[in-house]
Amino acid sequence: MLPDLTSDVAVKFSESRKLTAPEFLNLLKRHEQFYDWLVAFIPVNGYGSNLNDVPEWLRDQLAIVGASPDSNFINTFKKILDSFDIASWVFEEQVKQMSAELQEKFKLGSTLAVGSTYSCEFNGAVWKVPKNEECRVIVFPIGAMLLTQYCSDLIGIHLKFKSSELFLDAYFKAIGYSSSGIERALRIKNSSLRQCEILDKFHFDEVAEQLQLQLHRNAFLGVVDGNDYLRDYYPIPLHGDSRRPGHPLELGRTIVHFVNGFFVRHECAHILLDESNDMPTTSHEVEFAADRIAFSLGITQASTPQEKVCACAGAFIFLSLGRWVEELNDMPEYKSSHPASNERMSRLRIELDNFLELDPTTKDLARSLIDELDWLIQRLWRKSTHLRNSSSNSLISTMQRAVDEKNHAIFLDQVPRWLIFGAPKKLCYRLAVYRCQLENAASTASPTDEVHVKLSILMQIYETAKERTSSNLYDFLMKDYNRQRSQCTRGTNE
Question: Beta strand 112-117 with 125-128: parallel, antiparallel or unpaired?
Answer without folding.
Answer: unpaired
